[in-house]
Request: fold
Amino acid sequence: MSYILDNPGLVFALALQHLTTTGLALLVAIILALPIGILIAPRRRLATLIMGALGLLYTIPSIALIILLIPIFGLNATSVIVALVIYAQIILVRNVVAGLQAIDPAVMDAARGMGMNGWQIWWRIQLPLALPVILAGVRIAVVVAIGIATIGAKFSAGGLGKLLFEGIAQAGRYDKIWAGAIAVGALALALNSGLAALERAFAVKT
Amino acid sequence: MLGQAFAYAVAHLHELIAATGQHLLLATVALGIGIVLCVPLGVWTSRSPVAAAMVINAVNALRVVPSLAILFLALPYFGLTFTSSAIALTILALPPILINTDAALRTVNPAVREAAFGMGMTQWQVLWRVEAPLALSVVISGVRTAAVEVMASATLAAFIGGGGLGIFVTRGFALYDTTILLVGAVPVALLTLVTELGLSLLQRAVRVPV
Reply:
């Protein structure tokens, strides 16, 4: 704790770097996951197949996946960001599909009966109804990404993991381990509760 | 690069086998302690709303903290040892097992429980012969999540002296050699996939037909 108080600027800069890496990866992941989810949600067989494949990919430990990406992207932050996008993708696609499939078919029929076109149905019916589940996916993806980005520090992606790895590399620098653990733990908990609050705000009133 | 990694693996076969053994030992110890602690704890929380509110919330918060932070925090207390890694990995195994045991027992239909009591079963018999078989599949699903998490995080244990397949990862970083990194990464990926598939099959085998 005292390390954080003695070096607030440094810890803040690392936290910001951590957030930038995760934020960038999440943004790419969301842009990809929405169309994929919309495309496969009505096709149950395809959805099962793709989610099974993504699920297997999700089992691979993050440190192993980042290493497996090194031959393609090199030993740098790119490999870490690509790994983050892959993990987030799985969580996001799963929740987009679950959110869309949970919509009562009668609601969709009613919307079509009222003469809405595909875009209107998506924007005014599907998105608002599926949003809480999609946001839950975003929250889980953010928490997972913060954790993996911590390991990413070893692959020169920076972030709060740097403090943790420096703490074990330099004998006796347990203050750095504590500083890194407290900072990254607080960051994850804060984002988790913030996004949970957002989820409740968008919950569908019935 | 994979070819080079394979050649390195063959040249260091004994070391690779020993590391795999230690990796499995670490994961099994952590998972075993996790099961012994969390299954009874989950039975307790599923019966007591106060205990559930406290324990489940604490464990959920624990789940959000990055595993690397939990693992490295063991170092100041237990040193660069196997024990350090085993303790940290056990902590990582707790949340999924506890949450699933609690949820599994909560979803047992109260009417089924009442019928069992009505038949004259004792509390212990109801737990053992009615609730346990009904809950088993969901409990194993929690064990599966925990096992995959522990198997994955055991790779990071090498950073705090726990050994396992992560030794190739730490060596790869020390020598800045991607080939050696891959010698650690590929077996770890395979181990977790096998764990996931094996426990999914077990989970399916014990599922109660509805």
Chain A has a mean pLDDT of 92. The domain at 2-201 of chain A is CATH 1.10.3720.10 (MetI-like fold). The first helix of chain A runs from residue 2 to 6.
